[in-house]
Amino acid sequence: MLVAVLLVLPGLGGCRDDSDEPIRIRIATGSATAVYHAFGTSLAAILNRELPNVRAEVLVTAASVENVGLLNAGEVELGFTQADVLPADPGPDPSVVAIARVYDDLLHLVTKADSPVRTLTDLRGRRVSIGAAGSGTEITVKRLLTVAELDEAGVHRVQFGLDDSVAALKRGEIDAFFFSGGLPVRAVAEFARDNPTRIVGLQQWTVPLRRAFREVYVPRDIPQSVYDLDLVTTVANPNYLLVRADLPEELVRQMTWLLMERRSELAAAHPAAGRMSPRSAIDTPPLPLHPGAMAYYRDKKP
């Protein structure tokens, strides 16, 4: 296996030898039932299997905002984030850069099928989970409620993670919850399988979000086939896999190679991973690509 890896990934054998301490790669993900965690767990398994002296592990986090903070603090090496939580201007020498744009997160507004909540503005006066503190969901939802002029007095906001949001909706403790994730979100699928469910369309708020904040927001469909519910169109924004800028170029090149060349294996862990491609992966504004990732994409070009 080692010989095969060194043949496929030239240059790695010169980075370290077997007497060196393992290279620790900590991957900041999100909820254990959401896409980041499934994606990250599969990626960690691939890195451990195919890169000599790499020891990858997955961290459960509140997701995007926490992940970026952990990367900036040097407490993890890789992390997933939504594009809209990043600063519009990261400066000339950011400590965190990108490996790839991986897929789009779609904002889910989930309620029970018999709920009076049929539009975003129907949340007025109701108790709603806006996502865990430190999550990308929280950032997107606060912006959405701002452009819809639903202030904190109008919507009774609580901050639960995905699993707690699902449990609270089941018990009737909240009227709805938001979650931003790649399709399908397992916890939403399980809730919809066991409970009559409605996902509320948010298409009309894409343009106001783009005007008020940044042009990362786009409309995307949640097809009927995903949750066996009516098709709705919602707000989406890109997801990136980020890396500390100080990681060695060759190591990041090899990780990028595996990210792209093992897409079918990653897609088996979660279908969202199968939507990656080298063509779309290089689109990571406002962050630059790590030089190692750039080297892979440059070599990949026909």
UniProtKB/TrEMBL annotation:
Entry-linked SUPFAM superfamilies: Periplasmic binding protein-like II
Pfam families with a match to the protein in the record: NMT1_3
InterPro entries, sorted: TRAP_TAXI
Transmembrane spans: none
Organism of this sequence: Micromonospora zingiberis
Protein name: TAXI family TRAP transporter solute-binding subunit
NCBIfam families attached to this UniProt entry: TRAP_TAXI (TIGR02122)
Lineage: Bacteria, Bacillati, Actinomycetota, Actinomycetes, Micromonosporales
